[in-house]
Every structure is written in C-alpha cells, then in structure tokens.
C-alpha cells in the first residue's frame, strides 16, 4: 500500500491512535503554522509501530536556526512543557522544540536539509516498506522489541540480522532497493 506520508489525511482512516494524532495536529494547526518549513510527520505513529508513550515527530527544513527557534517560541511557547534546544545531529545543526498537547508529546525538529532528505523521513519510508513486505508477524515483533526498551532502528536491525550502526545500515537498504519514490 502506497501512502503519501507528506499529507496526514491518511491518519483519518488509521487506527485509533492515528485518528487522535490527526485531531491533535489539526486542532493545534501545527502543520499550517509550520507550512513555510515543509513539515512532515515522521516516526512510529504514521507506520503503526508506536507505543503509548510515542511522540509526534514533525521534521522541518529550516535555513536559519535562530529565526526558526524564535518562530517556534512564538507559535508554541505557551504550550505545556515547551522546551527549545539547538544541537548537532548527524553532523548537522538541529533546532528541536518539544511540548505536550492533547495527550501527545510533540517534537518539532528542524535542520538545514530538505525534509525528504532527512534521516527521520528516509528511515520511516524504509521501515514502512519492510513492514509491508514482511507482514504482521514482523510488525508485531518490532513492537514487542520496542516495548522491551529497544529503539525503532535497532529493533529493525535486530530482526533483520543487520550488524553495525542500525541508523546508518538501514539507510543503505534505500540505496540497494528501489524504494526512494514510494511516497509521491
């Protein structure tokens, strides 16, 4: 099944948690507010391997971190437990805001990299394709490993027998297989 992950409308037909996520994102106008930054919802909720504590990860393309940080404070600074930090991720500067709303933790992540090229989006597409190909038993095994404390990419690597850094090695699957244009 091909899903356009760039448009969250698919969540409306998803499981109960996806429907709640859709409602929370729409209620707080998160994607509309972030529209100039090409936001994409990524992570485990879109591909139905989330745990009850999983957050809503929204990646953005930001060119000016100071301006982006100020924008996030202006738009979301009054939300519960709002925090803002700038850090380095994968050798690239990143500005990250977190806050709570409607029983979800939101994480807004910005890098000076187009969102379609950011690792979170690329990982999600690869993981979705693996779940589709390998079926429900594989999906349940991923969720089980995650419920025992393993992060998502290490859980996939463990089940697939992948050695090395799972975050890097999973991306190599994208190059070896014709998956890049699954979501258009």
Describe the structure.
- The chain is an alpha+beta fold and 184 residues long.
- Helix content is 41%, strand content 20%.
- It contains 7 helices and 5 strands; from the N terminus they run ααββαβββαααα.
- A 5-stranded mixed beta sheet has the order 1-2-5-4-3, sandwiched between helices.
- Helix 4 crosses helix 7, helix 5 packs across helix 6 and helix 6 crosses helix 7.
- The longest helix is centred in the last third of the chain and has 16 residues.
- The radius of gyration is 16 Å and the shape is globular.
Per DSSP, the total helix count is 7
Secondary-structure-based class equals alpha+beta
Number of strands: 5
Lateral strand order in the biggest sheet? 1-2-5-4-3
Radius of gyration: 16 Å
- Order of secondary-structure elements: HHEEHEEEHHHH
- List segments where confidence is low: pLDDT < 50 over at least 5 consecutive residues: 179-184
Report the principal-axis shape: globular
Q: What is the percent of helical residues? A: 40-55%
Q: How far apart are the first and last residues' alpha carbons, in Å? A: 13 Å
Sheet of most strands? 5 strands, mixed
Question: Mean pLDDT, rounded to whole units?
Answer: 92
The proportion of strand residues reads 15-25%
